[in-house]
Amino acid sequence: MIEAEFGILYFLQSIHTPWLDVVMKNITHLGDSGIFWILTGLVLFCFKKTRKMGFCVLLSLAGGLLIGNILLKNLVARDRPCWIDPAVQLLIENPGDFSFPSGHTMASFEAAVSIFLYNRRWGVAALVLAALIAFSRLYLFVHFPSDVLTGLVLGVVIALAVHKGVEWLVRQKKEKNGDAE
Q1: Per residue, what are the HEC states of the chain?
Q2: Rounded to an integer, what distance in angstroms lies between the CA atom of residue 85 and that of residue 103?
Q3: Are the CB atoms for 72 and 98 separated by under 8 Å?
Q4: Cα(first)–Cα(last) distance of the chain, in Å?
Q5: Whole-model pTM above 0.70?
Q6: Sign of the CA dihedral 21, 94, 78, 99?
Q7: How many CA atoms within 13 Å lie on the side-chain side of 125?
Q8: Contact at 8 Å (CB) between 173 and 74?
């Protein structure tokens, strides 16, 4: 399987162009440490109309940090493709943490799905950005396709679970308040 994954990564290396290199570097930096998504969640949380959406974004990001970046990355301890084949010149700084799962991808899909579940129009834009960030991790040779795919799946699952939990709590609160009246 690793040969097939390297085949995909080497193909992506063959399509590099100077302008695409710049675009992919800038896109991938939007996912650095989840800062863009954290700020998005904080901004959404500041307004009553989008508070629940912002809360779900932030809670999903916290869940992904624990599950993906702290637990799975260290448990699986998978080397990055750029560590295995250092002959490929990186366009970004060589990441110091393990490869599996892709934290950039996971955080991006946690946030994008959380947004989509409350606002389809904003969510579609966020999903497009999440997909571009995920692709950039492959293009830049810092993740295997299975890292990115797993990050995507985990991000979606975490966001759906958080959404379901938050909506359940809101219903419980409404029922409790309705019973008291």
Answers
A1: CHHHHHHHHHHHHHCCCHHHHHHHHHHHHHCHHHHHHHHHHHHHHCCHHHHHHHHHHHHHHHHHHHHHHHHHHHHHCCCCHHHHCCCCCCCCCCCCCCCCCCHHHHHHHHHHHHHHCCCHHHHHHHHHHHHHHHHHHHHCCCCCHHHHHHHHHHHHHHHHHHHHHHHHHHHHHHHHHHHHC
A2: 21
A3: no
A4: 61
A5: yes
A6: negative
A7: 5
A8: no
| Unique residue bearing structure tokens 């990186």 | 90
pLDDT in tens, the chain (181 residues): 789 999 999 999 999 999 999 999 999 999 999 999 999 999 999 999 999 999 999 999 999 999 999 999 999 999 999 999 999 999 999 999 999 999 999 999 999 999 999 999 999 999 999 999 999 999 999 999 999 999 999 999 999 999 999 999 999 988 888 755 4
Burial class (CB in 10 A: 0-12, 13-18, 19+), 176: exposed
Cβ-Cβ contacts under 8 Å for 134 (sequence gap 6 or more): 102, 104, 105, 108, 109, 148, 151, 152
